[in-house]
Amino acid sequence: MIYTIYAKERGSAPADDPHRPSMIVVHYDLPTIPPVPLQTGLTIRILALRPSPSPPSLDGSRGPPHYTITETGVVGTVETIRTMEETVTEFAVKNDNDQSPAAHAYISIQHIPGVTVRLNLWEALCRRVFLPPLPHTRHIPLELDAVILRNVTRLRPERERRVRHDSEDDERSEDMIVESESLSRGE
Fold first, then answer.
1. Is residue 22 within 8 Å of residue 14, measured between CB atoms?
2. Which residues pair with 186 in a beta bridge?
3. Which of 141, 159, 161, 176 has the most CB atoms at less than 10 Å from its CB?
4. Rounded to an integer, what distance in angstroms lies between the CA atom of residue 36 and that of residue 186?
5. Spatial separation of the C-alpha atoms in residues 165 and 187, rounded to whole Å
6. Looking at the DSSP assignment, which residues form a beta bridge with residue 23?
7. From the centroid of its chain, how far is CA 101?
């Protein structure tokens, strides 16, 4: 099963692959709780979160963050834990999508055992033994009230509203369905 996760792109760097010099490694922060705790061997699809303007609130306070998502082309298996800190764990994902310029993705997430991260016995033992010297260099806050707006292109059932885009040069039409989803603990 492939699990979809929503992540913020932090940056990218060349993959240093002499056979494919155009390949990159992309770094992501995961501010939302994944559908299952991240662990080695898990197959995931990464969708990038892009900040979107939040609608104004009635009382003038700042509401929950709003994001739109875009396809990253990263679909692959979590191979290993790259780094562990006191509050952050970073996983390495090998991208199996040959059409994507990303060879690997590194996903950093706040370390909450059983909620955001699941470690096998060996990984948990290493974390416990090396925990005292593990540094605390950065924090990745979880945005439990984030609102994610998705543009989904797919075949439409007859009962859904259709938005048609026609041009004189292009006879194709595209059906777009806009969904919104509010992420909260346990969803």
1. no
2. none
3. 176
4. 10
5. 33
6. none
7. 17
